[in-house]
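Per-residue structure
===
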Amino acid sequence: MKTFEIKDEFIVDGKPIKILSGAIHYFRIVPKHWEDSLYNLKALGFNTVETYIPWNLHEPKEGEFDFQGIKDVVSFIKKAQEMELMVIVRPSPYICAEWEFGGLPAWLLTYDNLHLRSDCPRYLEKVKNYYEVLLPMLTSLQSTQGGPIIMMQVENEFGSFSNNKTYLKKLKKIMLDLGVEVPLFTSDGSWQQALESGSLIDDDVLVTANFGSHSHENLDVLEQFMANHQKKWPLMSMEFWDGWFNRWGEEIITRDAQDLANCVKELLTRGSINLYMFHGGTNFGFMNGCSARGQKDLPQVTSYDYDALLTEAGDITEKYQCVKKVMKELFPDIQQMEPRMREKKSYGTIPLNRKVSLFETLEDISECQRSVFPQTLEQLGEGYGYVLYKTQVKGFHQEEKVKVIEASDRIQVYKDGEHIITQNQEEIGKEFPVYFAESNELSILVENMGRVNYGYKLLSPTQKKGIRSGVMVDIHFETDWQQYPLPLNNIENINFDKGWQENTPSFYEFVFNVDECQDTFIDCHQLGKGCIFINGFHLGRYWSRGPIEYLYLPGPLLKKGMNQIIVFETEGVAMNNITFVDYPVYKKD
């Protein structure tokens, strides 16, 4: 490819084309599996791959940037180029993507008078600082410089959030000033209000729409919107939703394969497509997002399978085969290939090696920070994981009413190491009784279960995690708190030589040998709630609430010889072994 232009149609090297794209997020797939996913996209007959770039992953703390390993977006783009795929990049500060805080860094919440996704000078300053590092990595990979990148996104679904055109124009200027030369685009819901609010159509920024069915109706809206602004551009669904994401405690959402294929066929008779997702992958670590329904937050699961054309573990699905058949019907001369498959392996049941209570090894993995009143996780210099609050309560040998005021997202309360109560979001703030003797240690473990990734609640105080107000005993606020942030990014410091106490949050270690490193699944159906690490890599969260009761373990994270699994189990479920299976486990009715 030498040139890419947008006229009445998309033009590559002087010839009109349809963009046939699929979404693959490099940060949700281990690097050694990138090639398989890209190959299977190419084998379908597609010519383009699309990816978001999550700001919070690359600048986890302000001024500290990371583009290594699974975060190496440059290597991912170069791998796509090797496979002769064009690339659409969506580096907008906000990505949604069912990703923690929609990709916005948690440290933004430490600034007063910073208005997210606006032309607020302080916010734009932070965006520019990030872009000054990110964009020079991408500009040399643009099609204008012989690279595979054909388009970049200015902002994402902004019309579902605001109509601040000044912000969009300033964001566009930052990108142009930093060397972006390829065409820019916006993507919004396919209704007039969203398109009008979120686009820069009068500034010659391509307008695309996001939807997953009723293609003709949605394309009619997009086409009419362009005509209203005297534009005749090619029609494109930048996110053609082929499945959906899942939340804890709800049923798995699926879509009929042939129905999807029929809808794809309808779309491709008029426009171009980006399948969202082609390969969903995994929300590794603490990076799952959160939905909002009214005042209630609904955290999403670790798996980002999305019921996509490839499963979370990269397997071919019936959807893949149905869409492949449609592609051949529409484009008889298209080149297709047999897809790649990867074997899965069951490594069996591994016995427990060591265990230790969180309360015993706390000082080894976190540094105490003291304050009069509880501070939020962000104020304590962290953004993800857990935080443990401790204080001494003077008692009078009687039962007192206790309540935790404004905490997110889930709390577990202990007195002198004994579990008192667990409260989920909808219960936090309700009184509960605690018997206090003369001297008592009150401990509260708070979990950030994922910040909202879409809608007005991005601006809600509830996106600040930990305890925001305080803890009341009787009718007064308790003071003098010790606080231990627990991002769990230093689990190598856990001291398993210390004690273990039943019914407390604990770490469990398992060691095992492997001769071959193949994909597998950890069966979590007998566990309570927590997260799992393989050789130091954070696989993500599990929860008995379902619907998933497994964690996917990509083979490249294993090593020949000895491997280490560490489980952080918060519900007091004692673990004696852990089991690996060759299939995903789902909660049974």
About this structure: The mean pLDDT is 97. The longest helix spans residues 121-139. Residues 4-330 form a domain with the TIM Barrel fold (CATH 3.20.20.80).
